[in-house]
Amino acid sequence: MSPDTAERVLALLRNSGSIETVDITGGAPELNPNFRQLVEESHAQGRRVIDRCNLTILLERALRTWQSFWRGTKWILRRACRATRARTWIVSAGVAFSIRALKPCGY
């Protein structure tokens, strides 16, 4: 998502009282430079935020300190459909680690 698109989405949210939920999906939306602003402003406007990811993204060094940022965000866990057995095991281990890291934040 480009900065212009992110700003258009935020403007739409600011001008619409009928949008209750912001549902964010993609390969790894958390890596988009506009993701944090989109989530923060959505929460500030009282919107429900859903982030669809496989949680292994939280193992990325840049996102490890974000645990408190995620408070109030609903997670929908996705997994790869066509993964090898070894990859499935690695992803499962990463998801378990991420869930343990989020537990202090109320998840």
Care to describe what's here?
This protein is an alpha/beta fold. The chain has one domain. Helices cover about 40% and strands about 15% of the residues. It has three helices and three strands; from the N terminus they run H-E-H-E-E-H. The protein has helices spanning about 5-15, 35-45, 85-100, and strands at about 20-25, 50-55, 75. A three-stranded parallel β-sheet has the order 1-2-3, with helices on one face. Strand 1 (about 20-25), helix 2 (about 35-45) and strand 2 (about 50-55) form a beta-alpha-beta unit. Helix 1 runs parallel beside helix 2 (about 35-45).
Q: Could you say which overall geometry the principal axes of the C-alpha atoms support?
A: globular
Distance between the termini: 27 Å
Radius of gyration computed on alpha carbons: 15 Å
- The number of strands is 3
Write a compact overview of the structure shown.
It contains three helices and three strands.
What layout of secondary structure does this protein have?
Layout (H helix, E strand, L loop, with lengths): L2 H13 L5 E4 L10 H10 L3 E6 L19 E5 L7 H18 L5
Parallel strand pairs: 1-2, 2-3
Helix pairs in contact: 1-2
Features:
3 helices, alpha/beta, 107 residues
